[in-house]
Specification:
alpha+beta; Rossmann fold; Dna Ligase, domain 1; five-stranded parallel sheet; five-stranded antiparallel sheet; binds adenosine monophosphate; binds glycine
């Protein structure tokens, strides 16, 4: 079949990498894609906000399946648009309806959903500019640090964690009255701080049944030892060593099952990924957030471990047939190290020439922000540029291979964290 994949990051390169391995895939189109996806299919220049053009492309190229990488088109209702058009409604769409995508599009909606279905999460309340005084009062009932979340999508920047009450109150006013995050902070969720270690759990669901995909941990801060500004993610490890059988059973029983059951009970059409951001608080999982897509760079360590045919799984998901499907997973550890442009996540340059060097260890380079110029030269084209994923029978070995591969990749101003996975190694050694 012909498949259209929407997106242009490392996540999409990793999804394309698996789709291209499937004998069920005839032609793969990636919109808009990057220099990495161009080696696996045909990049097409489509605006992900222009559903009409995406639909027209899908019809004229006999696309039978569309896989949606990023959240924005889902929150804007691309799945509903396809379902509403007689000529598009038979295309399998991997990505939830607009209502399902609200789990990521509105923190308040997600928290209320969790509350309705008794899914463990931090205690919270939501406030608007009309209830600012109540919000300040609620802050006074909590212990520091204080967690403030813009309700809507804010490009991953909408969460503030304040060490003291005065700064939390000031930020609350800035969000609600001064529109710090534009419309996204017209409502603000204030919640209890959860003290623990984070991990990401991924689910593929057809809306009734689900498959648990491998877990992963990502590294959000720009600086080593988790310091400095938040980024899209500087690396990832899969599986997460502390997410053992007992912990994952709690995750499944307390979180995944009630989430999928809740979607079904509330008749929310959902065929796609659920990315559950979790905090492990003393051995018990709590939901920090839902995303309605795969993570980036988690996909770059999770997808290379999936041995099953992902196109077959997507087809089963689209037809409501995920029950009885088994997921075959490579037991080895995957380590992904992200290489970024100097200055990221603040101002950075694009257009630097990249030299990839050569691979010695069967590592995989997933492209994130890259493109080729008219002469075919590979150039940087984003903050996160390229990442190296290695699989090995142990975490130290996977890290060694991945870092060795990073050393061969060069461009002016390249930066990477040197401590990806070190926290997990310490944890495994019992320190
Ligand atoms: P989110 O955008 O909801 O993933 O939040 C961004 C980051 O803020 C998360 O990855 C956590 O590190 C942190 N965070 C969010 N909510 C909480 C919480 N209730 N307690 C502690 N940390 C949190
Ligand atoms: N790596 C976190 C995310 O994709 O949201």
């Amino acid at each position: 079949m012909n498949i259209l994949l929407l997106g242009s990051g490392g996540r999409e390169h990793a999804i394309a990498y698996k789709i291209a391995q499937s004998p069920l895939c005839n032609q793969l189109y990636i919109a808009p894609g990057n220099a990495g996806t161009a080696t696996l299919g045909e990049n097409v220049s489509l605006d992900l906000g222009d559903f009409e053009s995406i639909g027209q492309f899908a019809m004229s190229h006999r696309v039978e399946m569309m896989v949606v990488g990023p959240e924005a088109p889902l929150v804007d209702g691309i799945a509903d648009f396809f379902a509403s058009q007689p000529l598009l409604r038979n295309i399998m769409v991997i990505g939830p309806s607009r209502q399902g995508a609200m789990l990521e599009g509105s923190k308040d909606y997600a928290k209320a959903f969790m509350q309705r279905h008794a899914i463990p999460t931090a205690r919270y309340q939501t406030f608007t500019s009309a209830t600012l005084a109540e919000g300040e009062h609620f802050l006074e009932t909590l212990a520091p640090p204080y967690v403030l979340k813009a309700d809507g999508l804010a490009a991953g920047k909408g969460v503030l964690i304040d060490p003291d009450l005065p700064s939390a109150k000031a930020h609350l006013r800035e969000m609600l009255q001064d529109h710090k995050f534009g419309d996204a902070s017209a409502s603000v969720v204030i919640e209890e701080y959860l003290n623990g270690i984070e991990l990401s759990v991924f689910v593929l669901t057809d809306g009734s049944h689900y498959l648990l995909l491998p877990s992963a941990k990502d590294y959000k801060r720009i600086g080593e030892d988790d310091t400095g500004l938040n980024t899209g993610g500087m690396g990832s490890i899969s599986p997460v060593p502390f997410a053992d059988k007992a912990f994952m059973k709690k995750v499944e029983d307390r979180i995944v099952k009630p989430t999928v059951r809740g979607l079904r009970e509330e008749k929310i059409p959902y065929c796609g990924f659920i990315f559950v951001g979790l905090m492990n608080v003393g051995g018990d999982p709590y939901v920090i957030e839902y995303n309605v897509r795969m993570g980036d760079p988690e996909t770059e360590s999770v997808f290379p471990r999936i041995k099953s045919d992902v196109v077959q799984l997507f087809e089963n998901a689209a037809h409501g047939n995920l029950d009885g499907c088994k997921l075959e997973v490579d037991p080895r550890t995957a380590a992904c190290v992200m290489m970024v442009a100097g200055g990221y996540p603040e101002g950075y340059r694009k257009g630097d020439a990249i030299s990839l060097g050569s691979d010695v260890d069967s590592t995989i380079l997933f492209h994130c922000g890259t493109k080729r110029d008219s002469e075919g030269r590979l150039l940087t084209n984003g903050g996160r540029v390229i990442c190296a994923t290695a699989l090995a029978s142990s975490l130290p070995e996977a890290l060694l291979k991945s870092y060795n591969r990073c050393q061969t990749v060069e461009w002016d101003g390249k930066y990477q964290r040197r401590d990806i996975g070190q926290d997990l190694l310490k944890l495994m050694q019992g320190n």
